[in-house]
Amino acid sequence: MIRSTFSLLFIIFGFFSVPGQGKQATTMADVPAACEQNAVYLNAFNVKRLAEKKTGFVIVRAGDGEDSRILNHRFNIVSKYLKKFLGESDLVFARGEPVSGQGRVELYVDGDLYLVMMAKRGRVPCMNCCGYDFQHGRF
């Protein structure tokens, strides 16, 4: 049983890239497949920081043409979701300086950039496939 579980994990992780394995962070575009991929990446982020006993930082940034209202909306929904679904209250959340291009949510493990989730103008990046309305912050 243990051998088959190990084999399954090897197959899964052998074929799929998980962020943080190399020196570059993963950037996830805001596309239809982003929901499922971001869910996997967020889980890997949480496992990595807990295993290494390091602090996790989440920086939410506005993009071109986005004002503080949109930034605050994105920040509130992202922080609410991550606190609930990662089950962690020790993540550090912050609003970052605006960036050119699309808005984004950046995740760091102890100061090292781990994942960037892009967000279309005025939107919140999808972080799970089912059951959560990311644009309105409710189930």
Care to describe what's here?
The structure is a single chain. The protein is of the alpha/beta class and 139 residues long. 36% of the residues lie in helices and 20% in strands. The chain contains three helices and five strands, in the order αβαβαβββ. The protein has helices at 2-15, 34-51, 68-85, and strands spanning 26-28, 56-61, 92-95, 103-109, 112-119. The radius of gyration is 15 Å and the shape is globular. The chain starts with a helix and ends in a 20-residue tail after the last strand. 27% of the residues are buried.
Task: Name a few traits of the molecule.
five-stranded mixed beta sheet; Glutaredoxin; 139 residues; disordered N terminus; alpha/beta; 36% helix
Secondary-structure map:
Elements: H1 2-15, E1 26-28, H2 34-51, E2 56-61, H3 68-85, E3 92-95, E4 103-109, E5 112-119
Parallel strand pairs: 1-5, 2-3
Antiparallel strand pairs: 2-4, 4-5
Instruction: Tell me the domain tally.
Output: 1
Elements, N to C (H/E): HEHEHEEE
Specify the CATH class: Alpha Beta
Overall radius of gyration: 15 Å
Instruction: For the record, give the distance between the C-alpha atoms at the N and C termini, rounded to a whole number.
Output: 37 Å
Helix content: 25-40%
